[in-house]
Amino acid sequence: MGSNGNIGKNKSMSEGRELAEKTSFSISCVASIRVFVYPSGSGPRNIPKYTVQVINNSLQGVFNVHLDCGYFTSGSLILPMIFRRLQPGDCLVNDGKEIGPGKIIQFDYTNTFLDKFPVTRADCS
């Protein structure tokens, strides 16, 4: 009976380590992505235009990149395969596909406000 208890305990500890490794791995993926937003002129009807760059600074690919976008809207079209709002506070970059090391995903939007887009999730290849 004692050995069965230890096996279960060891299995549980092993699963805990795997979860911790996955979590820290995911956190490092998020930390390797930089998002820059800057003014870039005017759009239709003189609405301010902004450029967003999502940069993978990692040495490996990242995919399933999600940004916190609040109630983001744009007065100009953004291709949904580049950037789309899934629901309030959750936007998907590059249709969830891989962004290679050093690669940049860029899009423009028009709005009266400059938005910030913190990374909330990303997975490493």
UniProtKB/TrEMBL annotation:
Entry keywords, A to Z: Signal
Listed Pfam families: TPD1_C
A biological process from GO: cell fate determination
PANTHER family linked: PROTEIN TAPETUM DETERMINANT 1 (PTHR33184:SF67), PROTEIN TAPETUM DETERMINANT 1-LIKE-RELATED (PTHR33184)
Protein name (Swiss-Prot/TrEMBL): Uncharacterized protein
Organism: Amborella trichopoda
